[in-house]
Amino acid sequence: MAAMALMLVAAAALVAMPAEAGDENVVFQPCADAKVQRRDGFTFGIAFSGRDSFFLNQSLQLSPCDSRLSLSSRGAQLAVFRPKVDEISLLTVNTTTNPTINRGGFMVAFAGSKYAARSSPVFVGNSSYAITSFTLVLEFHKGTLQDVHWKTGSCSSCSGKSSMVCLREQGCAIKAANCKGQGGSVDCSIGIQLAFSGTDKHDAVLNSWYEVSKLQQYSLYGLYSDLKNSLTTRYDNIF
Ligand SMILES: *[C@@H]1O[C@H](CO)[C@@H](O)[C@H](O)[C@H]1NC(C)=O
Ligand SMILES: *[C@@H]1O[C@H](CO)[C@@H](O)[C@H](O)[C@H]1NC(C)=O
Ligand SMILES: *[C@@H]1O[C@H](CO)[C@@H](O)[C@H](O)[C@H]1NC(C)=O
User: Where is the signal peptide (predicted)?
Assistant: First the structure.
């Protein structure tokens, strides 16, 4: 599932990842159009940069694939993922090894060229705070990505914890001084709960967003045994 590569946006041209069984989607680049069915892999990107760098003339938001933004010359970073369509996935971006990511400010999720879909920029962190938990919904219409939304988190998991604060709009944030690499002991890597909605190219309904929305967001982390240590440590043990 969450194969991830981190590189400059300019290098996004080709992402070589082997297709898994049942995956008939031959499009591996986030800046190309794909038409998918359930169980295909789907490649999309997340770009990290300052908020203004996602806008042309500070007013028109473009896809990070659009060369007019010149994201690479602004030091933006890119993570590329290939989750399976309609499977609930937890994606991670390791900020211990890439500390500039949650100080860069904002991230935008995107895919496609002619049908370029991109999310609004969402705040990830600055020198004071790091946000580590996100939910992303990829919405398809007949197998083509139509829309990408971030669902904002609630603050219920941070109330009463001195290392965390509740930021309006964004949900819980960890005070940056508690993060590894900045003097603290918490792994402030970003975890993105991913879900799908809409329809695939055969008009089959994608249900995983419905499933995620019915569950408590944090209870899902227990399903991902490889991440259990970092994630449950972050939320349950340290504070
Ligand atoms: C952006 O600004 C430049 C220079 O001010 C101008 O030439 C260009 O037409 C503007 N583009 C848009 C889309 O507003
Ligand atoms: C991030 O990388 C560091 C150093 O390689 C590692 O110790 C840490 O467990 C990783 N965190 C996650 C969430 O993978
Ligand atoms: C960091 O972000 C928070 C929340 O958006 C904001 O209140 C604060 O002023 C920012 N701090 C810096 C140093 O930019």
Answer: 1-21
Ligand 1 pocket list (CB less than 6 A): 56-57, 60
For the CA of 126, the nearest atom of ligand 3: 1
Containing domain of residue 148, as a range? Answer: 2-238
Minimum-distance ligand to the CA of 180? Answer: 2
Give me the number of domains the chain comprises.
1
Residue 210 has pLDDT above 80, yes or no: no
Average pLDDT taken over every residue of the chain: 78
pTM (predicted TM-score): 0.82
In this predicted structure, what is the pLDDT of residue 212? 67
Torsion of CA 71, 76, 80, 81, to 10 degrees: -120
Cα distances (Å, whole numbers) of residue 38 to 21, 22, 35: 13, 9, 11
